[in-house]
Write a structure and sequence with these properties.
Blueprint lengths: L16 H14 L16 E3 L5 E3 H9 L8 E6 L4 E2 L5 H4 L4 E6 L10 E4 L1 E2 L2 H11 L1 H10 L4 E4 L1 H6 L2 E3 L9 E2 L6 E17 L5 E14 L4 E4 L4 E4 L2 E4 L8 H10 L9 H18 L5
Parallel strand pairs: 3-5, 3-6, 6-8, 8-15, 9-11
Antiparallel strand pairs: 1-2, 4-7, 9-10, 11-12, 13-14, 14-15
Length: 291
Amino acid sequence: MRRTPIMLLGCTSDAGKSFLATALCRHLANRGVRVAPFKAQNMSNNAAVTPGGGEIGRAQHLQALAARVVPGVRMALALLLYPWASNLDEFDPLFHEENVNVVPIQRATPLDDFHAILLPGSKSTVQSFAHLRTSGLADEVVRAARRGAPVLGVCGGLQMLGKRIHDPDRIEGGDADGLGLLDVVTTLERLKTTRWTEVAWRDGVTLHGYEIHHGVTEPGPDAEQTLDGGLGFAQGNVHGVYLHGLFASSAFRQAFLADLGWRGRAHDWAARIDAEIERVARLVPESGWEP
């Protein structure tokens, strides 16, 4: 039977979170409950190595022993949260897949232990990119990409991955260099594109999503077009798309995660959302109030 997760929170280090989590793991295991201790991000300098060669915190290693399970790591995706980041809800389907851990990153952090790097859209691409530069995150993204980590930029994230952003009308304050990881150049335009879009993908799958951007992006010789209409480009392990909402597609989400080594099965996101709405709606009559 699927059970509700238990979260332990503390406002300081050494508050007793790990101690209590260890006690709960063994208490529940003794009652026959299958327990999986989990921590979103290990910031401890004290690490343990799993049988599979992964790295976890010493406290989580102890909790796994308390739960009588083999210590292991889970799929971790770094989601960069720069200022003006937008449309973050499109990554919600990833948060709800089993054994997938989406870790928000706001400041310079080594990205070596993450399976993929996600750059979301932005209300001000040039300003968001300036933050990446000054915070040191830009260098970390470049280093991760060069070691072969998959990098995906959506909309403004795509523009940042390119070589150059031209801003002739100074919509965002002027021209800027990009990360140079994708052989594309973007020109910002006053007219904003806002539309629902569908585009053919692979294996006969049609992807549905929406566009909301000011820029037009042109590829150079080293960039491959992956989605028709200038909606997607790739260069090795670096990908950029203009189409928002791709992770709502079970087929796209399954393929994306499987390429990272995930062995789960992507669930129908639309059906999950509908079921949650129905659950909330039932609270109205259950409360005794009828409109």
